[in-house]
């Protein structure tokens, strides 16, 4: 099974907010994921879209057919935390944690009953193959 990966480190937005956008495209085909990201009204949609394009380019470099690609995995984890301070009354300082995200995107070929999509296209069968979406 061929896979192509791309990752984005230290993206300056909290992982909790980025996961909302990541959940939109998990398990979808590449065309559906691009379409969903274009209409997502979130700040994280733009960098995840660029990351998706990068993963598609990596798949082309590995000679993987881009028509059969599916978002196999997308994980959003916490990255480095930038610590800042907010001045408070009586000379105190309150800590502020500015969180970053690490996004890992894995694209793979669409599987049909345990076989890759290329094997199904090349095979001749009497019954049409039903693909569950």
CATH-level-4 superfamily name: Ribosomal protein L22/L17
The CATH class is Alpha Beta
* Count of strand segments: 5
Distance from N terminus to C terminus (CA atoms, Å) equals 19 Å
Main sheet summary: 3 strands, antiparallel
- DSSP strand (E) fraction? 35-45%
Q: What is the average of the pLDDT values?
A: 90
Q: Which segments are poorly predicted (pLDDT under 50) over 5 or more consecutive residues?
A: none
Number of domains: 1
Which structural class should the secondary elements be placed in?
alpha+beta
Tally the helices. Answer: 4
Instruction: Tell me which CATH architecture applies here.
Output: Alpha-Beta Complex
Q: Helical residue percent? A: 25-40%
Q: Kindly provide the radius of gyration, computed on alpha-carbon positions and rounded to a whole number of angstroms.
A: 20 Å
Shape: elongated
Order of helices and strands: EHHHEEEEH
User: How is the CATH topology named?
Assistant: Ribosomal Protein L22, Chain A
| Largest beta sheet: strand ordering | 1-3-2
Task: Output the keywords.
5 strands; 32% helix; Ribosomal Protein L22, Chain A; alpha+beta; 4 helices
